[in-house]
Structures are given as C-alpha cells and as structure tokens.
Amino acid sequence: MWKYVKRYLPYAVLAALFMIGEVSMDLVQPGIMSRIVDEGVLGLNNGGTGSLSLIWKLGVWMIGLVLFGGLCGSLNNAFVHISSQNIGNAIRKDCFLRIMRFSFPQLDQFGTGSLITRVTNDITQVQTFVSLFVRGMIRTAMLMFGSMYCMFRLNEDFEFIVVCAFPLIVGCLIFCMVKASPLFVRLQAQLDDINEIMQEDVSGIRVIKACVREIYEKARFGKANDELIRTQLRVLVIFAFMNPVVNALMYLVVTVILLVGSFEVGSGKATPGIVMAAITYTTQLLNGILMLTMLFQNISRGLASWKRLKEILRSEPQLMDGSFDGKTDKRGEIEFRDVSFEYPGTGQGVLDHISFTVHPGETLAIMGPTGCGKTSLVNLIPRFYDVTAGAVYVDGVDVREYRQKALREKISVALQKSELFNTTIRENIAWGKPDAELESIRAAAAAAQADDFINASPEGYHTVVAERGMSLSGGQKQRVSIARAIVKQAEILIFDDSTSALDLKTEADFYTALQSISPGSTKIMVAQRIASVRRADRIIVLENGKIAGCGSHGELLKSCRTYQDIYHSQMGEEDEKHECA
Ligand SMILES: Nc1ncnc2c1ncn2[C@@H]1O[C@H](COP(=O)(O)OP(=O)(O)O)[C@@H](O)[C@H]1O
Ligand SMILES: [Mg+2]
C-alpha cells in the first residue's frame, strides 16, 4: 500500500500536522481552565481575591485556541479526504487496468461478481481505513500520551489512579476486540455473498421471471441477508456491553480522582482547578482508548479488503506476451499441430490431439454437438487460452511467440455470446476499428444482413443499444456482432456459432455476401446445422474433443458416420418442416 500512500504523502503529512495542531489545542485547554478557576475565580495565588481581568484574558485566549483548533481540524479533515480519496482512486484505476489485462483463465478464476465487489466495496473499506489511520492514529496516540503527560505534570497522585485503572480498561477492550475480530472477517465474507447474489439476480432477472423463480431467489437473498444481520447484531451486542462497562470504569476513575482530590484540596496539596483539569484529561484519555477500539475494528476490515485487492493488483497476466510483431509473408494460414487442451484447474481434457491446417482464403467449418469443444478450439487461435500440449501456428508462427496485440489484429472473432455495449449501433459495429468510415460500416452491416433492421429503426446507425444489447433480438444482436467482425477486415475471420439465431435464408444470404466482401480472408465457421456448413471448402466434425471426420460436404456424407447421422437427423427435420408448411 506504501506505493499508493507515497504518491499522496504530502497531503497525508499536512493532514497529520493539522491533526497535531488540533489535538494540542485540546490538550492545553484544561490547563487554562484550571488557571481560570484557581487564579481568576478563587484567587489562590492572590490570597483569595479573584481577578476578573485574568478571567477575561484567559477566556479570550481559550476562545482563540478553540477557534484555531477547529480550523486545524477542518484542514486536517480536508487533507485526509484528499489523500484517502486519491489513494482509493489510484487503487481503483490500477485494479481496472489489471482486470483489463486479465487473460480468459484469470477472468474464469475470479468471477465477475467478485471483481465488481472488489473494485467497489473493498476499495471503499480501504479508503475508510486510510482516512481513519491518518486521522485516528495520530489523534488517539496524541490524546492518550498527551493527556497522561499533562496529568503527570499536574499531579502525580491522579496519574497513579489513572495508571492503575488503565490495564482494567484496556483489558476490557482487548477482550471485546478478540471476540469481535473473527466476526469482522465473517462480515466481509457475508457481504461478498450478498453482493454475488445481488449481481447474479439483477443481471439474470429476466431468466428469474421467465422461470418464476422470484420466491426462491427472494428466500436465497433473504437468507444471506439474515446471516449478515445476525453477525452484525453479534458485533453490536459485544460493543453494546463494552461501552457501559468502559463508561462505568471511567466514572469510577473520575469518582476516585474527586475523592482523592477533595482530600488533597483540603490539605492544600492540590487546587480545585487541578482536580477539574485532571478529570478533563481522564475523559480525554478514555476517549482516546475508545477511539482506538473503533480504529482497530476498521483496520481489521480494511486490511481484509486490502488483501482481496492485492490479489488483483499482484496477479500477473497468465499468458505472457511474445515478441513477434506479426509481419509474415503468409496471410491467414492456421495450423493446429497435435493440440490438446484442458481448462486450467479442471483436470478434464476438452481437446485431444487435434491436427489440421487451414490455407489462406479457405473456408473451414467446424461442427459437432454442443459441448464437444468447438468454442474451446477456436478460442486457441487468438490465444484466449494456451494449449495444454502441441501448438497452434498462425502464418507459420506459434501463437505464443506473437505479441498478443499483433496476433489479435490479424484475427476477427464474432464470439458465441454476442456482447453489445451501451452506445450507438455504429460504435458497436466499429468497436474493433474505431476509425472505420460510415460507408464500410454500412457495407459490413449489409453483408451481415443487419442493414435492413438498422435502417428501419428511427435513428438508424445512431440508435443507442440498451445495456448488454437488451433492446435487440437475439438474431439482431448476432448480426451486429457479425458486422463488427467483418468491418475489422482481418486476415482470419472466426464466427463462433454466430448464425444460430438466423433463419436459413438470411444465413445463406450472409454467406454469399461474406464471400464477396472479404474474399481473401480465411474463414472459420462454427455451426451446428448442416445447412450452415455444407458450402464450406472443408468441414471438421468434432466429437468429444476429437476429429471424427474432415472433408467437404460430399466427402463426409460418404465417409463419416457421425456426419451422416447428423445429416439424417437434420434433413429429416427439414423435410418435416416442409411437409408442415
Ligand atoms: N471457461 C470454462 N471453464 C471450464 N470449462 C469450460 C469452460 N468453457 C467450456 N468448458 C467446458 O469445455 C467443454 C467444451 O465446451 P465448448 O468448447 O464451449 O463446447 P461447444 O462450443 O462445442 O459447445 C464443455 O464440457 C464445457 O463444460
Ligand atoms: Mg460453443
């Protein structure tokens, strides 16, 4: 954390200096008050004659000091907030950058909900921790040691009373802290649970409604909430008992000081003013101790949050960048050489000894049942994941040797799940090529068969898409994603099940248009329908992560059993559809 504190250290130091000013003023006041009583009112130094002018003089001094202390307090507050907010901001920015650099396996590992909780709630906890640390630590330490010292100078007997009571009070506080500490850790974890449920349920609210799961989800959320409240109540109960006990001890000390004080005033060893000052110092000291407990509560919460943020800040990108800048003679060749793959940490193979080559300009289709590894396979080409064994070559160079940016500039992917952003359709299409002209955006949209529906909407290409594309139908979203992939004009185009929501005619029109808009690029089409893949130059049939067949539609129909089965099951459906129509 020092790295961040260092940047805003001048503000923190200023805050500390002003805090010293504020507490010093608190500490000198009881001394002045005791002089007002002893010398001004009782006239103890003047044979019992008080002095109104001294009361005035010291009164004005006191008001001045209070005002100065208040000013220091305000400035301290301002600088504390400047430093803690800036530190929080810097941490948040760094976390965001780290997350943006995360590779796919790391995103899988953390999970979206947890990442969002960390950059919001945990950073707030750390901010509070920093401001309390700068403000509270100095204040508490100065109040405690300052009032002990001042009291010692006033009267050693009173100091002795306080020193005797000190271990009792501190012991009581430590007992409560020990009881409450594990509860704070649990509190943070339970808050995490609530945030995760909230996150999941709000983003999936449409599914919840569709499946009539409201009552179940309400109960799930209610249960998590109840657990949080139970823990919070336990913390509150501990502190509810602690406060009166500490208060009782405090008043016990005050009473003893008054008792001893009255004897000492009688014997002339102390003055009423000194007794009054001693009582004020005692309350200041105990306030300091109480503040310390509050500090420890927040510090333990802040440290728990900081640990979670460190996990983000310390995580290095798992896929290390190569140094190759992507300049090659070949344009758009892909080779899988004996590739096996499993998702990190799962121990379950997804792809098993896959080898094939796609030549520049060729159209390769990959088909197979859901879960057979099609998405996993195409994700290896832009190196979203690293192979477990073997290698993937793009234009003759292992993808691990490329700089990732250079590799991904060669490749354009329409992911299986179409993600749109909350901006205009135009910007959504030009997402991978922000400087694209409207003409090329239109041409890409036309090829993706999206032109018609975009033009039909009142604001055309300037229509703003709702968050995550909620305002578009599944097929419309897919078409915008396809247009986004086309407009980039990359050497390699990958469409991962991108036409699944399109009807057969629209899909066929798209394939024809794609050939004419990017004739030279290598195309990989992942699909599940025979009708979608039959025109491809070559088709790979995947089954359980293995290649079950490879060839043209005609060749596979003759030689590949799996393909024949799929063909018959699907063509049967088509025939039935025709009959129904
Ligand atoms: N991020 C992931 N982490 C762990 N396992 C995954 C992940 N994505 C997919 N899988 C698993 O890998 C297998 C292949 O998935 P996938 O490649 O998406 O299949 P397909 O695209 O052919 O439907 C499935 O069994 C799936 O459960
Ligand atoms: Mg898939």
Biggest sheet descriptor: 6 strands, mixed
Categorize the overall geometry. Answer: elongated
In CATH, the topology of the largest domain is named ABC transporter transmembrane region fold
Instruction: List bound small molecules.
Output: adenosine-5'-diphosphate, magnesium ion
| CATH homologous superfamily classification of the largest domain | ABC transporter type 1, transmembrane domain
Mean pLDDT: 88
CATH architecture of the largest domain, please? Up-down Bundle
Report strand order across the widest sheet.
Answer: 6-7-8-3-9-10
* Tally of distinct domains: 2
Category from helices, strands and their pairing: alpha/beta
Index terms:
2 domains, four-stranded antiparallel sheet, binds magnesium ion, 19 helices, 581 residues, ABC transporter transmembrane region fold
Please characterize this protein's 3D structure:
With 581 residues, the chain is an alpha/beta fold. It has two domains: 2-314, Up-down Bundle (ABC transporter transmembrane region fold), CATH 1.20.1560; 334-580, P-loop containing nucleotide triphosphate hydrolases (Rossmann fold), CATH 3.40.50.300. It is 66% helix and 10% strand. It is built from 19 helices and ten strands. Strands 6-7-8-3-9-10 form a six-stranded mixed beta sheet. A four-stranded antiparallel beta sheet has the order 2-1-4-5, with no helix packed on it. Helix 3 packs antiparallel against helix 5 (112-154) and helix 18 (553-559) packs across helix 19. The protein is elongated and about 120 Å long. It starts with a helix and ends with a helix. The structure holds adenosine-5'-diphosphate and magnesium ion. Magnesium ion binds next to helix 10. Magnesium ion binds at residues 374-375, 416, 496-497.
